[in-house]
Amino acid sequence: MGLINKGRVNIVITNKVLRYTYHKNTSVDGVVTHGEVVLPPGVIKDGTIENRSILLEILNKLVQKYKWKRKKLYFCVPDDTVVIRKLKIPVSLSKDEADGYIKTQIGNSFYLPFANPAIAIEFLESDETSRNILIFAYPKEKLTAFEAVFEAAGLKPIAADLTSLSVYRYYYVSKKEDKDHVLLIHWNQDALVLTAFQRDKAIFSRYMKIDSPEEENTGEDLRIRIVDEYIIEINRIIDFYHYSITKGEAQINQLLLSGDTPFLETAKKRLSDAVTIPVYHFQAEEQPIKYIDVLGLALKQES
């Protein structure tokens, strides 16, 4: 039975596409198969399942085609409603105790824009009395809806991840030098997600919905104008990081560009021209660059 279930499925879902890989192990070169399904309009809207029956039909076809029945599944959902907070807690608390403590603080010491959150906690540095932690909060009903449809298709959901964390994970194993302050610019067809990483930890995220025309209907001048409008927003986040998040003590020293937008090459060139910060972009090797998100998800270690 162990041999039959060896390997795992990894799925990243956006509002427009479902990307997948099947990996025999958690390594960059462990991929057995990969692919992408364009979702019919209205199946996923604003990160929420709107047409469960069509999504289930798509998943059933993949499970049957690749014989994924009862396989472990790791998945990413859209980063549209994730909240990242850096907080202090008493140093004596264990992770389980910290989870309970944080839940008592919601609505008191900090606020979330939604009720009933799913929360993950990451411990950071500490001193004699307190510990810094990162919390990642996401609407629980969104996660449980995805888990339910995956289970209905015969998969075994093990863990959920954020797309931005998965992309950064892939960057982390392939980067040539360490940078303490990285801004991930994950530019998809439907959204632009800007995530700031401080010493390899995500501390801030901004989600912007995109409604761009299709590439074949977009001339070069319009493409540049669209990209330049979002570069203004990227520069604002770079300044926000410097002046508000780090209080003027540090600044972004690496931009990391990824995503599935057809404007990615234009964005790379316009970004390089607009800022003095080095822009790191992935090289297409065995799979196109758009698969970096699901390849990074496949590197997430099994707990």
TrEMBL record:
Pfam families: PilM_2. Gene3D superfamilies: 3.30.420.40. It comes from the Bacteria. PANTHER family: CELL DIVISION PROTEIN FTSA-RELATED, ETHANOLAMINE UTILIZATION PROTEIN EUTJ. This is Pilus assembly protein PilM. It comes from Virgibacillus tibetensis. The gene is pilM.
